[in-house]
Design brief:
Blueprint: E1 4-6, H1 7-19, H2 24-30, E2 43-45, H3 46-60, H4 65-72, H5 80-86, H6 91-101, E3 109-116, E4 119-126, H7 134-151, E5 159-161, H8 170-177, E6 181-182, E7 188-193, H9 206-219, H10 227-239, H11 247-253, H12 258-267, H13 272-290, H14 295-301, H15 307-318, H16 322-332
Parallel strand pairs: 5-6
Antiparallel strand pairs: 1-2, 3-4, 4-7, 5-7
Helix pairs in contact: 1-2, 1-4, 4-7, 5-6, 5-9, 10-11, 11-12, 14-15
Amino acid sequence: MARWVPALTVQAVLEAFRELGLDDRRLRVEAGVPERALEGGALLPAVVWQKLWASVYRDVGRDEIGVRAGLALPFGAFGLMDYLAASADTLGMSCEALSQHFHRVSCERSLELEEREGWYRIKLVVMEASEDTLVGDEFALGAIVGRLRARVDGFSVAAVQLRRAPPPHADKLAELLGAPVSFGHAVAALCLPERMRDAPISSADPWLRRTLESLLPHTELGGPGSPLERSLRDCLRELLPKGRLGASRVAGALGMSERSLHRRLREIGQSYQGLVDVFRREEAERLLLDGRVDMAEIAHRLGFADQSAFSRAFRRWTQMAPRVWLAQRSALGSPGSDLAAPDK
């Protein structure tokens, strides 16, 4: 299972639990989530998600609770993604917006769309299938169905496919989702009649959609100080001393595919290697100024083969050897100064 879950999603599911009459505050406390942790769009450890649902299973059982919570999820709980999807012209455009921005609400799965055999299929593809990820499928499908029901006249689902084994009362799931439900599939999916793709969205608003799209570069998970960057830095700090510098390793530690990581970075005009270089340089400067770690240890922490390799990289970043850079900063008395002199 992914190591992280967006705080936005944890907050959203707590709101859904409140709508269902559950004690969301108690559930949050039992999961070990301080209220302040839900602010600012952070990423939380995945164990928080597991503990939340474990408490809910204990209180009300698990057979339909994922779908019920998704259907009860208030509109707007998923923030910008909700409004983008709701302002689209058609169901197909709405689903495309959900697919494009699904990483905002899930670190472990993607939403994919396909057309075949007269169906328009909305699939939830999980990076690593496990028992822990099943309820997330049902919560997501319930949320999608609830939102489309509210905004598409004549909305209907032809079939629902779930990864889980059949529960004792499978007919209740079919009743909630309004379609036959089958179990044991490789991926969870909603199968809609193909004609639904072009069904109009009642809340379509082209001007709102354009405005929201113009704001995306400033709200994307990946800008300075964003949850993605903070999590990326945490992973690098943990993995670099072990020599694990590859994007695939870091992406896996973040609970996403390497392809998804590169895509999200491209969307904000960044590259993986560029961010690694920035992290290494900033960490090197921080550790040098701290003064409690010797040069060999700094090289090790930043994943360099040896001190010489670190020194060469530092010269590339600053045009100075590490000791010259440190001496200059000390002489200036201003660690943050951007003044630099070429190294002789």
